[in-house]
Amino acid sequence: xxxLLKVKALTKSYQQKNFWLKKTTxxxxxPISFSIQAHKTLALIGETGSGKSTLAKILVGAETATSxxxxxxxxxxxxxxxxxxxxxxxxxxxxxxxxxxxxxxxLQLLDEPLKLNTPFNEKKRKEIIRSTxxxxxxxxxxxxxxxxxxxxxxxxxxxxxRAIILQPQVIILDEALASLDPSLRSQMINLLLDLQQQMGLxxxxxxxxxxxxxxxxxxxxxxxxxxxxxxxxxxxxMSNPQHKVTQKLLMNQNFQLKPKNK
Amino acid sequence: xxxxxxxxxxIELVNGDKNILAVDKVSLSMKEGEVRxxxxxxxxxxxxxxxxIVGVLDDKWHVHADRFHWRGIDLLRxxxxxxxxxxxxxxxxxxxxxxxxxxxxxxxxxxxxxAIDSKSLTGFFWQKQQQQRHSAATxxxxxxxIKNHSVCLKSYPHQLTEALCQRVMIxxxxxxxxxxxxxxxxxxxxxxxxxxxxxxxxxSLNQLKxxxxxxxxxxxxxxxxWTKTITVMYSGQFVEAGTxxxxxxxxxxxxxxxxxxxxxxxxxxxxxxxxxxxxxxxIPILQHLPIGCRxxxxxxxxxxxxxxxxxxxxxxxxxxxxxxxxxxxxxxHKVTKRVS
Lengths: 262, 340
Hints:
The complex is a heterodimer.
Chain A: E1 3-19, E2 22-37, E3 41-45, H1 52-60, E4 67-72, E5 75-76, H2 82-88, E6 89-92, H3 96-99, H4 106-117, H5 122-135, H6 152-164, E7 170-174, H7 182-199, E8 202-206, H8 210-216, E9 219-224, E10 227-233, H9 234-239, H10 244-257
Parallel strand pairs in A: 3-8, 3-9, 6-7, 7-8
Antiparallel strand pairs in A: 1-2, 1-4, 4-5, 9-10
Helix pairs in contact in A: 5-6
Chain B: E1 4-15, E2 18-30, E3 35-39, H1 46-54, E4 61-64, E5 67-70, E6 73-74, H2 80-90, E7 91-94, H3 98-101, H4 108-115, H5 129-143, H6 149-154, H7 162-174, E8 180-184, H8 192-209, E9 212-217, H9 220-223, E10 229-234, E11 237-243, H10 244-249, H11 254-261, E12 312-315, E13 318-321, H12 329-339
Helix pairs in contact in B: 4-5, 4-7, 5-7, 7-8
């Protein structure tokens, strides 16, 4: 299968001015290369400060990479081509309660990306919003509600609706499942998996919960201080971790799993 | 004798003309030296229950209980001042976000020495009491596993990591040598490495000092390794209580079953990317609680009888509050009799 998203030697470093003429560079991401296919999920794990979120921000266009290139369907994504980027790569954030504008209705919230990116008229846009809301398990009439009228799980569904409304190809989930209650989280996982099958989405999943990663992802990449220390098929990496960092992360999770085997 | 014995505790929110029953007849009992988990999703009233035990709820909330015993003393008969004196001596609580709970404008050392009981100091105030306080604070830090005490005592909360702050919180809680420690989601915003550190510290305190711990969490999987017994709550109602093995391996209540099944890391036999078992719908909000069993609208086994609140049934110490529990012992007894 053709590669949907391909990243080649992406780096990111910040320059810090310390003294007069003396600059120190802080490298957040060492040269990093990977690719995601349609219908597949790539999971990213690592400790805080390992560069997971920076990578996600670069992919979605919130930050610019220092060097390296990103290919989408074989084409290079230009650094300033936000139009192309925001149509194809979308992101869901951790806390859906604060990422939805409380002063706008759901209709206005979901209308914004359509207005900016599509040539459709108002009637057609409303139709799309209605069908998208139904796709994520809400009612079309919910579009006149304000975000505070929804519960946490429903808000996360609205964030998902905002992500898929432009028919993207890649969705980045930055800890999007962490703040949900367990029973709502499994609903959300089911929904995401269904949408992946229907729309052929590729996910980049950033999470701490290895249980979810094992269930959800096909490939895994372990980051530590900006470097990829281990990557491969999720099941292989998890059953036979090679690098110290991976072993440590897995061991922490195994601690929590033990009562099952007792 | 039970350390803490609460029977049918209800917490009501007085809101104008309408009262909302936020916690509906929850029973909780703890033995000496026990680590009990209190599990519930958001809005299940687990934090409210903890706050009611400590007695820090304000006038908006009305607390009723049929029985509220602390080490054999009936707390309902004591006056408020006596109850507060007793509970503040014996119970300590730590909270979810340690960074937010510590005072950002004073150093850790000052906050710690403030927590030290002045009755434990000897001599008059001119006789080196400051030094005693300082050494007591240092000892407390050593107890929670902070070796570098001199740096820690001088620093402000923002200069420490979150796990260290939580350790300091535990140290402050330990200052009066409590018998029961209530930990309200102590690791909610932490990384898994730090989570394990804190849990390990809590369990070592339990084993070495025989301190009972009530561990509150929203996630069943996080705490199963550290608890002996678990109480599950849903939307302000008691669901199920039993030992960790009972809850995890043989849940009787459909809700507990769903909690265990919805947990991808607990089900290694599940093929990857298959659908997880879930309950439909979402958690009801406080203004629109269903009558009777509050799980009713979401429950796969709900029947007409569920519009009435179920009573608690006890199967050999495994308590469940459901009209139609999943594998009741009574039925299985009948089956075995027929076979024999």
